[in-house]
Amino acid sequence: MNKLYYIVCEEKEATLFEGRYQGRTRGGAMKFLKQAIGRKTLNGLVFTITEIPVPLIREIVAEMLAGGDGGTIANVTPAANVVPITRPDAEPRAERFDAFANAAEPEVTPTKATPTKATPTKKPKAEPEATAAKVGNPGHGDDLWTKARAYWEKSRSINKTAEKFGLSPNTVKTRARREGWNK
After folding, report:
1. Angle between the 169-179 and 158-165 helix axes, to the nearest 10 degrees?
2. Residues 6 or more apart whose Cβ sits within 8 Å of residue 60
3. Which of 174, 165, 176 lies closest to 125 in space, CA to CA?
4. 56-84 confidence digits (pLDDT tens)
């Protein structure tokens, strides 16, 4: 659908172009402006390309031809085939169905967990042996880390421990350093 654009282009307070263009896109209007002023680029110019909504123009013209107050043309007889433009009905108010909508608070069940500062950086490669989730430590519970530490104390290998429990070696290394497993 073609749109009507109003274009004004100035350079150092001198108007280079002022006019209208009818086309599909604003980019097409820019190409037209470049051709009209004979330049490859619009660098250094002050310009505006404003889309004029065609339904609004039709409404204004119909009002003017019907002899309404909105026009500046006086003593014009209305045209026979002018169809007044009606505004579409207002759409129903949009509602939010997300985390920020006003909703009932979910029930929080207390869990028996000791606070730690562990934050894994990667998802496990394999399914961990313990699936007990802990608040503040998504995906890994205290049981997993207790078993991981016990295995590490037997093997003294970060890589073997990480592989057995489906963790990254860096995650195990960080946890061991934070909790002082070497002491």
Report:
1. 110
2. 70, 71
3. 165
4. 777 888 888 887 654 444 554 555 555 55
